[in-house]
Amino acid sequence: MTNSQPATTQQSTVEDWTKALAESSGSPGGGAGTGVMLSIAAALTSMVAGYTEPGEHQRDELSGIHARAHELRNNALRLADEDAAASNAFGAAFRLNPGPERDEAIHQASVEAAKASAVLGERAIDAIEDLGWLASHGNPALIADVVVGFGALRAAIAGARTNVSFDLASLTSAGTPLEEVREQHPELWTTVSRLSDALERIDQLTAGVDKKAAPTEAL
Length: 219
Hints:
With 219 residues, this protein is mostly helical. The protein has helices at 14-22, 30-51, 59-94, 100-137, 143-170, 178-184, 186-213.
């Protein structure tokens, strides 16, 4: 990979991608990292589902969880790369000289970046209950992997929530009052609240399996 080629999750090793993430370029950045964390959560969900022997009445449900996790793992990486591209446009807008052109570029890039993060967040929300099902019904020998999955999923949701909120707030840099931002982008505004609720749900699920995952804490 040359310096002129952006690092993507599809064409990079883990070493190459995290090296690019460590650079002060912003692309990939935290938003793309959110996508990678979501992919890790999906991969762990798929793994635990694959190791779980379902009861007769659980086969269809477990099969659905496995299939959704497999699809999400790939989609999350694609979304990570799309977020990296949005982040690049976001940074380029702020590097323009002050003036109407810069204001318009910031507005457009902020909205696109918020939309990219919102999609990641919504996908992460959809994955919560599948992992929660495995916390209750999955192979008990893999409960630690479930908890790691919850951690990765929580990081993805927290990252998406912060990025959507920050990107919406960035619209005020172009002179738009925050109240007007909420009126112009109600779906994105609502997404921030949904992601906040999702964090509480993950914390609830994680606390519910804590004694099984870390029994030495009770000693």
